[in-house]
Amino acid sequence: MTESPHIEYVIRVPFSLRVFFTKNAFRVGNLLFRDLAYSQESGARKKTLFYIDKAVAASHPDLAGDIESYFDHYHEDLHLRGIYLLEGGESLKNDPRCLDKIYADIQRHCICRHSYVVGIGGGALLDVVGFAAATAHRGIRHFRLPTTTLSQADAGVGVKNGVNFNRKKNFVGSFAPPFAVVNDSTFLKTLPGEHLRNGYIEAVKVALIRDAAFFDWIETHADSLNRFEEAVMEALIQRCAELHVAHIANSGDPFEMGSVRPLDFGHWAAHKLEQLSNFEISHGAAVAIGIAIDTIYSTQMGYLDSSSAKRVLSLLTHLNFRIYSSVLEMRDDSGNPRILEGLEEFREHLGGTLTITLLKKTGSRFEVHEMNEELVLKSIERLKALAGSSRNGG
Ligand SMILES: NC(=O)c1ccc[n+]([C@@H]2O[C@H](COP(=O)([O-])OP(=O)(O)OC[C@H]3O[C@@H](n4cnc5c(N)ncnc54)[C@H](O)[C@@H]3O)[C@@H](O)[C@H]2O)c1
Ligand SMILES: [Zn+2]
Questions:
Q1: What's 19-190's CATH class?
Q2: How far is 386 from 350, CA to CA, in rounded Å?
Q3: Which of 75, 195, 271, 372 has the most CB atoms in a 10 Å sphere around its CB?
Q4: Residue spans per domain, the chain
């Protein structure tokens, strides 16, 4: 402690991270949103501004009308200021103009800190709208309605938001717990199979680092998941969201001030793969490959037994994830493998020492502070061979 005269107070700000599960959130009679939006400070109607993922609006053509009717019906409690559509997907996070547009809407509609900004869409839209809401007026209450399995299970239920800068993932962003998350399973009905599957990977990830029984459950239900059976998908989403929220709340480091980031297991390679592929490889698909690399690496280093690694890779393949991509072979002008840049970028993003989560067994993780690059490359070679002998190469 410094000897210098100083003033110090501890500032405690309690946050609640709330995730609700429902169907048809904006059907008149479903009081969840009304009660959440209204009950905070009785009396005042809260101004609300909506942003909807264009693909969601296109596949749910009644959605905007339903929201209008809902706000009309509960007009004594709620006050709709506007509904805007935004192009969903990673291109939104790569578009520097999107923030200006949202800030301008917030200004024009006189949205204040006692108003709400609501995002309805995939993880990409929620990241952008969440960041705009967190920064306009230094923080506006923000509802998230995730519409993909990945965002209902992971991206939408956390405390982070952000946009890409110079094509670097999440380079600009903030930690800002949403006012509430509303997981409406009706949205998933229109999500294409590839994106439905993407959410499974974050469940596999969190099971691997925290919950062996959940990993067993996913293995047991892999066929049902491949058939996109509603009840099984909903159960997977709920457990995955629960594990994420519990980790954020209980890990002692919700805003990631330290260097340990277990929820990013498999993500150092994933983020680099997304970028190197010019975002042709989706987040979910990239995380599957990232998990495969770090699983094989865990075995190469002697931390994880090979039968557990085999189980992990079999599950990925069973769930129809590719475990290899030729993008892993990209090299820079000096001939260095570009995927390894992901390690330094990951360290930089976290700050401090490089910290990578690896596996000891299914459901149990630990951290290392350096990666043997030669063995990382060997792990990738091994994956290439394995993928070549299965149908899920790339
Ligand atoms: N903030 C976090 O903590 C966090 C965590 C994990 C991932 N992420 C981010 O989340 C993003 C990935 O999110 P995602 O997997 O949800 O994908 P996404 O947001 O890119 O959406 C995938 C595609 O599906 C469309 N779509 C969304 N919902 C739909 C629906 N119900 N019906 C039809 N089409 C629909 C979108 O328009 C988009 O084209 C990445 O940018 C990733 O970095 C953030
Ligand atoms: Zn992820």
A1: alpha beta
A2: 32
A3: 271
A4: 19-190, 193-388
